[in-house]
Design a protein that fits this description.
Belongs to the cyclin family. Cyclin AB subfamily. This protein is mainly α. The chain is built from five helices and no strands.
Length: about 110
Amino acid sequence: MGSYLAELSLLDYSCLRFLPSVVAASSLFLARLTIGPDTNPWGKEMHKLTGYKASELKDCIIAIHDLQLNRKGQSLPAIRDKYKQHRFKCVSMLLPPVEIPASYFQDLTE
């Protein structure tokens, strides 16, 4: 799932402004959100492991989320088709939440 989301970002010009580590962390956030939409995907442990707070990733998360929802990036069918294959666990067919709760971007207190 994370690879799929990161690969979507590679072909979108607006994502070039983000550091690769930000794209990777944002892809992980969205992968965790897609798999478990009722649970905050970014806790203290993820902050500790990546060095990023959810609020620092917000712009990149929203950009990749728009690609995931097909709000932009209509010219990316090859990536979507690739990740529909069984060997990639059909992750491009998983439906992400339409909206990301604002509370998921609030920084957790230590």
